[in-house]
Amino acid sequence: MTAASTPKFDEMLHEDGTVRAAYSEFRNWYDAQDKSWLRRQDAEAEHFFRRIGITFNVYGEADAEERLIPFDMIPRIITAKEWRKLTKGIEQRVRAINAFLQDLYHRQEIVRSGRLPISALRNNDAFLSQMIGFTPPGGVYTHIVGIDLVRTGEDDFMVLEDNARTPSGVSYMLENRETMMAMFPELFTQIPVRQVSDYPRRLARSLRACAPPAYDAAAGKRPVVAVLTPGIYNSAYFEHAFLADQMGAELVEGNDLRIINGRVAMRTTTGYKAIDVIYRRVDDDFLDPLTFNPESALGVAGIMDVYRAGGVTIANAPGTGIADDKAIYSYMPEIVEFYTGEKPILQNVPTWRCSESDALAYVLDNLKDLVVKEVHGSGGYGMLIGPTSSKRELSDFEAKLRARPENYIAQPTLSLSTVPIFTKEGLAPRHVDLRPFVLVSPEGIDITPGGLTRVALKKGSLVVNSSQGGGTKDSWVLED
């Protein structure tokens, strides 16, 4: 399936130009508005984002100062029926991922069965030997999951990526909704949209439900939750601070913490206080200089020993990054069926593993038509979009593939669905994806209705990442 072979699916308009049911009420409202007023509201949204500091950093650039994430004020709308099907597929996939991680770090039955080759784990930096034989509190590995979805047709939602390590973007989902409600309050009285504003409360409740064995429930106090951030220079620092504030949790850095009496404790004005659950936004390699990177100043020396002894919960668990691996992704249909006994409700994008000689030969022969990604890549970096690449770029990437084929997977250039964005000339279609956010605890799986819609603001572009020129918009799931 390539961009040339399949027409794009417009989520607002039928092929004859009539409005689909999901957008009918919104479109009636939009057509009744004064367009100059809408343009002023569009400018006001940018001012609002600047005032409250919704920014991100782009690493590796000379002008790597904080940037504003572009916001588009036309919502992406999903019907209740569509959402019900999506939630079933998302829940099935998240259950399978957690069971997969439990198995990988214990008996590795999926490897013994022949469904997953041992080569997928061998020499894979995301697989942590330090987690072998250890079960996190409550048996939960992936406390917060982001499942990236793309749509290619009426009923064709597919999983593009699994984010089981430290999925980001939920603060933009929340601020997008708050902005829309501030600018267009009447819309939310006319159109029944499911709320997302209670996500921080649900996140805090879910994290507390994963308290470690050392937590003393009999003391009558809630488990203490803290957000561990690398600091103000991290690209997602706004989100770390935002979520800590919204949850009523502490925001801490590694130098605020120390190990005292077998617990991780944070510095306060009245001395050190034990933490029960750490929502960490620090990568595995920097968590503990005694276990991982000895040069790290971002984590806490000895935290892994406390973790394995039951003194603290780390969310997400170290070693969950193996489920983010794009080579592992290619086995997800088999993984879902192996652990759930069910056929996957949500399909994968067809994927060629370049580590396999036949797949590599096919990819090299069809490079101009494919998207090629690094196995551990993220943020739109290190990838090739064949149809939009020059002959020089194709040639350079071919050399990379031949040198390290195991470092890449390839996929067809999907004809992603489009939704309208606001332009000075009126509404215009742009390609989008969707990242729903999922909370996992011993109490169950909780999926926030909607998620973060990322949009490629450039006409014809398929790259939605904010670091690559994309923007975001509010995602509406309609009530029945």
TrEMBL record:
InterPro entries: ATP-dep_Glu-Cys_Ligase-2 (IPR051680), CP_ATPgrasp_2 (IPR025841), UCP005522 (IPR016450). This is Circularly permuted type 2 ATP-grasp protein. It comes from the Bacteria. PANTHER family: BLR5612 PROTEIN, SLL1039 PROTEIN. Residues 75-456 form the Circularly permuted ATP-grasp type domain.
